[in-house]
Give the backbone structure.
Amino acid sequence: MKFKNIIKLSVLCFAFGNLSAQNPWPKATNTAQPWTRWWWMGSAVDEKGLDKQLTTLSKAGFGGVEIVPIYGAKGFENKYINYLSPEWMKMLQFTTDKAKSLKMGVDMAVGTGWPIGGPQVDEQDAATKMIVQTYSIQPNEKFSEKIVLKDEKQKNLKATKLDIVTAYNEKNEAVVLTDKVTQDGTLNWKPTSGKWTIYAVFVGKTLQKVKRAAPGGDGYTLDHFSPDATKDYLKTFDKAFGNSNYGIRSFFNDSYEVYGADWTADFKEQFKKRRGYDLSQYIKYLVSDDESEIAGRIKSDYRETMSELILHNFTENFTNWAHSKNSKNTNQAHGSPGNLLDLYAAVDIPESETFGSTKFDIQGLRRNLEDINTKEIPDINMLKFASSAANITGKTLISNESFTWLTEHFKTSWSQVKPEAEQIFLSGINHIFYHGTTYTPADVQFPGWLFYASTNFVPENSLWPNIKGLNSYVERTQSVLQSGKSDNEILMYWPIYDQWASAKGKDMAFKIHNIEKWLHPTVFYENLEKLGKSGYSLDMISDKMIGEAKFENQNIQVSKNGGSYKVLIIPQLNYFSELTLKNILNLAQNGASVIFQSEPKDVPGFFEFEKRRNELQSLWAKIPFQQDGNLKSATFGKGRIVLSSDVEKALEYLKIEREKLTDTGLKFVRRKFDGGKYYYIVNHTSKEINQNIPLNFIGKQVALMNPENGDFGVAEAQNNSVKVQLKSGESLIIKASETPDNSISKWKYIEKTEAPIVLNQPWQLTFKDGGPELPKSKTLNKLQPWTNFTEDSSTQSFSGTGVYTTSFKLNKKADDFVLKFDKLYESAKVIINGQDAGIVWSLPFEINVGKYLKKGKNTIQIEVSNLMANKIRYMDQNKIQWRNYHEINFVNIDYKPFDASNWKVQPSGLDGEIQLIPVYFSK
């Protein structure tokens, strides 16, 4: 039978025999547990509610919360607390004290809603933009018009000013006229001949305000490019916090979503200081639609300057400020008009973000197209910008805002969350923040207060009884991924100047929502995809990081605490800094291996570019390439430089080994610790893996560790390979050590299975913990979902827990028994003979139960929890008010008004067969 082949491939390791063994799992701290973003709606919190929710989160396996105040619920205005007011700080202190007693951590956003801003941001410090007005002057014409702002909203602002005035004739000859304009806008200049166009650039304001702000948090968004604006903004927190950090572990800043901010008050001066020339003379090429080479060079310099300003004036100041409070900081760099790698590296905890749903080939995984946003697909390579920066610079934690809009509201199961979490882990991230949990007062009924764009990790969720299964899985996995150091062998340069050199547009923000424009079409991305699938592990590196790198102990290393790498790859590109090439040649001189996919064509930017181009070509000419088969190679000092369009062939030439385990379709991420390595391996294919897989390192002992249930044992390993049994959707941790631990028992491999015992006798179905009302109990001759019983209308609207109970006789002996569910909607707690046998919440829906069974009569209870969807559908059909919020009220996955009244009833409970399968282990 088909089940026999499926079961014998299962990863199963059983705890008996391991009780006296030294546990190979790293000691877990609260950072290994998942944390959750915690929205305080209207900051209408009180001690009773805070105490209750923190305690509930702790019991469910959460290690911490991240406070983000947002807009409030209607009808509770008298309970709103102004952000950072003495009462608000009192609630914060209560929160951190309570969390500490529960061994939880607390982070908080430096602002309400997003992006960063608030009432302390005056006009001067508000997000800034350039406003361009053009004028024409005919030959011999006296220019009588005043050069003043025409925008009615802008001209009365105190912070606006005229910044640059430059005239161009038909030959593109420029005359800077800024000092020829008087206070009232009169231009004291008259051309002698020809037609001229005047470009006047004013310093203006975007007038954008904080989105979804909480009471006391409304105001302009911040000018990220001004050091004074950043310092002024943080003074408000200095006043509220005084000399204390109030127990905050890390201060958090959300993704950069400032629109139209493309200037700052002293940009012209900063540009000249950093790029070496006055932008005024070339302003036309920046602000017009000219797509000439010179326009591309000017815009490249402009974008590089923007990048440096946000790095030095906002990000580094934010980090220094957090340190002054004896806290850390967390920052989402994506969306910024800057080099993401440098911005992520400048903070303590770089944070990425996943938005939308990934298509996996896992057998049985539900992915209904009507419940997902098909335009938003998370990309593992986008996540690697954050993990790369952290790995290279030695940050121990890399976080992620996880599962935003994973599916439509109320339709996300824990089994759908798991592979998305695994994709995050495979990118190198090791500190997940669920998105998220909304604070709800103790007396607010189902579904509680809810955020409009999240997966609902709230105690009111009908799936909550089994969230500990997911959280324990995340905790075990993160305990490993937070141990030791990243063990990636390749550095790949991000050719950001190819992006910056585009003559189209002006400012350039690297968002997660437009990677199809700036990331996917590049050869850089093509390399990331191909090398990852081939089994290479890599991190991305910036020009700044290359400048800080050294070659020591036969590896390239940027930071003492960071990763060490065997090779640096420069992918095919057009623009390359001569300074970066010089730094790379210094690395090679000292022994580094470098691969160029192509010869750099040109230098970026405008200043003395012909001189710098000659320098680039001169440096390149120093590399004594020789033809060697299909590639060129050169010995350079103690190192090796290879030129090849085929990066994989170049890696083979340099004897950089890939992990061949990916040939099976398995995915992995690798960590190293003193005396060994961890491999976290995931099977996202539709097939079962039952074979020896090759590893580049196996040491003297290999232990297998199951992150879903915590079991472990010594594996069968030989000839640099390890025997693995993984079903579709399962994962495994391999610990390869130089020092054997003889106290650990052998891993229990399944050798064979016998015909299953089908539990097809009558079942009793009862209900508990849910509503709007409990359906009537039923005796079932055939196992089926409770939603099949349409004659009882309460079964169609019930969200909660249904309990399936039966008894059976067991006369067979086996090494163990696997309880296998055909279809489970959505998760279940299994109780056998009165003993808790565990939670079934992820694919494949199986659990080993042998140690709970006895000869003769056995009783089994399966407590199944379904989605919130059916109850929400009922509430909308009956017009029961549950969403009533200020600001954005509630929207569906397409950002249209939410209405569940026309939803189909979501199947709930058990369906198909439940089998008890005897398994036998190899001896």
